[in-house]
Design goal:
Blueprint (H helix, E strand, L loop, with lengths): L1 E12 L2 E12 L3 E5 L6 H8 L7 E6 L2 E2 L4 H5 L2 E4 L11 H9 L6 H14 L15 H12 L6 E5 L7 H16 L3 E6 L2 H7 L2 E6 L2 E6 L1 H8 L3 H9 L9
Parallel strand pairs: 3-8, 3-9, 6-7, 7-8
Antiparallel strand pairs: 1-2, 1-4, 4-5, 9-10
Helix pairs in contact: 3-4, 5-6, 8-9
Length: 246
């Protein structure tokens, strides 16, 4: 079953072409990753998929719904984990989740148990009543993941989910995503990290200068072009990706 269908998507910002005629499909239960450097067009493509901005041309459907015509129906069924930290600093960890649930008209009698369940999932139960300012960067990323899951989304969209994290925190997020994949949650993410793409993604789209240069499973790409996934990326783009944290 196709969850996301993108057909000849183009996005211009003035004279800049951020996304340049890309097409792809994502199937139910699949984890699909955009791999590429800053400015490649990854975040712009994602923003269009979750109805944050309109396309200049082309067509994008999510659950068979057009992103320009039926954004509210799409947003009700997806969870978004942004790259930037936009957690409310004036609320506790638990309050951030319960207040966010109101956007989906989830009553408190349902949102409170759901929030505790997700705090267990991301291993933040012991931080439930602390202020956001006392959390580490890794804890904030895990809280953003929990918040994105409050409405039990069919599709989870993540922009650089582990950017800037230490190895322990990064692996904790990867473990969470592995559990979601077992539940057949469809996931789309952007990443700079080779190891993240290899470990999490069923398929990868290598993107640069607004274009998808190549797409396929990590194993297929490595078999076709030789070497590891970083070698493939370097061969296709002539660029190196961000250095991985050991």
């Amino acid at each position: 079953m196709v969850i996301i269908r993108v057909e000849h998507l183009v996005k211009h910002y003035g004279n800049l072409c951020a996304v340049d005629d890309i097409s792809f499909e994502i199937m139910k239960g699949e984890c699909f990753g955009f791999l590429g450097p800053n400015g490649a067009g990854k975040t712009t493509a994602m923003g269009i998929i979750y109805c944050f901005m309109p396309p200049t041309s082309g067509r994008v459907t999510v659950f068979g719904l057009d992103v320009t015509l039926q954004p509210s129906m799409i947003k009700a069924r997806i969870g978004v984990m942004p790259q930037d930290d936009n957690i409310d600093p004036d609320l506790s960890v638990l309050q951030n989740l319960i207040v966010y649930a109101r956007y989906f008209d989830i009553p408190k009698k349902a949102s409170s148990p759901r929030a505790w369940e997700l705090l267990d999932f991301v291993e933040l139960r012991d931080k439930a009543n602390v202020n956001i300012k006392s959390l580490s960067g890794g804890m904030k990323r895990r809280l953003l993941l929990a918040r994105a899951l409050m409405n039990d989304p069919e599709l989870l969209i993540m922009d650089e989910p582990t950017v800037g994290l230490d190895p322990h925190s990064r692996h904790a997020v990867w473990d969470n995503l592995a559990h979601l994949k077992v539940r057949d949650t469809t996931i789309i993410l952007t990443t700079h990290y080779i190891e993240e793409a290899e470990r999490i993604c069923d398929r990868v789209a290598i993107m640069d200068n607004g274009k998808i240069i190549e797409a396929g499973t990590p194993a297929h790409l490595m078999a076709r072009y030789g070497g590891n996934l970083e070698d493939v990326y370097l061969r296709l783009t002539g660029k190196k990706l961000r250095e991985e944290i050991a």
